[in-house]
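Q: Predict the assembly, please.
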Amino acid sequence: MEDVSFAYNGQNILSQVNLTVFQDDFIGIIGPNGGGKTTLLKLILGLLIPDTGKIKVMGGTARKASSLIGYVPQNIHINNSFPITALDVVLMGKLNTRSRFRKNTRQDKKDALEMLERLSVQNIAGQRIGELSGGQRQRIFIARALMTTPRLLLLDEPTASIDTKGQTTFYRLLEVLNKEVAIIVVSHDLLVISNYVKSVACVNKGLHYHPHEDITGDMLETMYSCSVEDLCRVQLLAHGRPDKRTDHVNS
Amino acid sequence: MSILEYEFMQHAIAAGILASIICGIMGSLIVVNRIVFLSGGIAHAAYGGIGIAYYFKWPVMLSTLGFSFIASMLMAAVTFKVKHRADTIIGVIWALGMAIGIILIDLTPGYNVDLMSYLFGSILTVSKSSLFVMLGITILLFLFVVFYYNELLAASYDEEFAQVRGVRVKQLYFILIGMLGLTIVMIIQVVGLIMVIALLTIPPFIMENKVKSLFQMMIGASVLGAFFTLTGLWMSYRFNLTSGASIILVAGTVFLLNLLVNRAQKKLQV
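A: Predicted assembly structure:
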């Protein structure tokens, strides 16, 4: 991603953003509401086209690479009274518009069940999606995103509807998945993600990238462009050591 | 039952069953996509097409189909582009279509008794040619849903994800709304434009929390719709009542009973 800018209704949402994601990355994106976090994800996904700059995903355009990117959208937009089973949601990940008459084959179903097993939610495959808990549903959405065996997984506010204990389990799961796939996760909560992510990008019109060793005092100086709330969290964090010290806050 | 020997009754039953299938399929899509209000807008705007047909002495079915299709495309364009303003604009097109219809009928010399039948339906006077048009549209709708089922499912459930997976969401939305415009005109014949929304939404709504897939919802809603129309038709014959209103009365009663049963079930669980 090079010098990417994007404006909506004449307003600059993102300007001059540079970001490179490597295969084993686990990046947390933080920043204030309206700072452009979701826009950034949509640009990577090819849902939005940048006004200036270039985005390359695995050497090709974002659109071409869409099967190499797994996407877990924000939970809140999803209609929970929709009549659909967890398994069918996961199968949606296999949707291929080019081969229309290839219905959900037995192989797809087997893959989907295996994926559910990997995320240890195979027991709820036949349940309606609306009957599941927030954490279970989130795993279903991850399973769906992983169906195309992507090399990059994008998550938008994945833990918004999960309690603190569930969040810890959730990020542990991401840590495990990160062994095979690069992950970018958007979150409000720097405190929680700082335990798991390898680096942090702060997005507020511009983008400030911090390798993990940096998530300390000097990050404060570059974080001034973020909201006061985020500033406080960084301060809190800066008092301890950044690695595993903040565990007590989570539990 | 000798009543079944009358041709008009056979037509009415055929029209009722076709309308139920149309409502079951289309209604399910409307309910899960939350575009009930837009459907109401198209139904009422369709009255403009009726006015045009009377004023210019065009065939009613064709001109209503055309007008409602144009109105639905207009609504699709506006609602896709400015989603947060959608309800206002639908409301405007809704009223404008009706106003055009009323004014054109005012300007048409002579008094048209027939008009009430468009407001409240005229299932007992459905002609053979209308039946064939209905059959054609049912088949078209059926093919559309079979062809696009996976895409429709994905786009209805999670538009963004569908788009990432390469579904042409915008194109699909326009086709869906266009089909909606055509089907609404069909159902207007059966229950009239004022009550069309009830027949479109009540059966799918009752089915929604009882089924495990969109496909089951469509089947269930079609069967339920057929039960409503046939029961309503029988009531209207037996007690000499307006057919459209009788059908909706049956549907509404079952709807309320269903709500009560759902509530009781929830209480029992607690």
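The beta strands of chain A are 2-8, 11-17, 26-30, 52-54, 69-72, 152-156, 182-186, 199-204, 206-211. Chain A touches chain B at residues 45-47, 66-67, 69, 71, 73, 77-79, 81-85, 88-89, 92-93, 95-98, 100, 103-104, 126, 128, 144 (CB under 8 Å).
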